[in-house]
Amino acid sequence: MMRFEEIREFVGDIPFMQPERGKIIYEHIRKYKPLQVLELGIGHGVSGCYIGAALHENGAGHLTCVDLIDATFTPSAEDLFRRANLAAYITTHREKSSYTWYLKKRIEQRTPAGGICEPEFDLCYIDGPKNWTIDGAAFFMVDKLMKEGGWLIFDDYDWVYDNCSANSQSDGISIAELAEDERKQPHVEAIFRLLVAQHPNYGDLRVDGNTWAWARKLRSDAKTIRLTYAPDLGYTVSTRLRSLYRRVLVRANGR
Predict the structure, then answer these.
(1) Are 45 and 77 in contact (CB under 8 A)?
(2) Does the model's pTM come out above 0.85?
(3) Which end of the chain has less Cβ packing within 10 Å, N or C?
(4) H or E segment to which residue 92 belongs
(5) Phi, psi angles (nearest 5°) of residue 198
(6) Phi first, then psi: what are they for 20, rounded to 5°?
């Protein structure tokens, strides 16, 4: 078993998930007891540690993590999972170009001959490039793999490309090649408002502190997006620091 306090102490100050966010997702998993969890975009693996620890505490469940081969961090997610003794609860997949390619392969694997994709996951946490094209497509692919009643969480609801310097890249996206409105528009907010909220199979829509956007796979006529937490100044500051941290990594790696 692994209590929240134990995993919180273990991850310490490693980015990118703040402890209060870790506690929210930990308690969500303890309450709803998902058996199959999907995480798209894993960074150092801190969020995966919180998820894996909650599954460990539940005594059942598995986390599938997906990120890029070139998404290199020190410590790596794989190393962090091993050191936390959570490797038995977590499988990590690395793709060359995008986690959407993993989703494509998984949909193929879950589709019987002449049939329809069989849902697999009870919860999906998306914390990737925060890009309309990539994450908008990922939503529709994840939907095919999501069980009825499953939960979807988008991180970085209000993040914008203007957080990055004009001559940099963010998760492979060249900032200089984006139009001004693409840089100023929060892509996750647009995905949630225009794709998720309008989808007939999703309800219980809420935005938590301009940080996380939640939706549950269930048919609902209620399409109002609720604000469930006061805007989080600490998150805003940490977002700026995270953007700076990633820019430093990009420059250090020559990317």
Answers:
(1) yes
(2) yes
(3) N
(4) strand 90-95
(5) -90, -5
(6) -65, -35
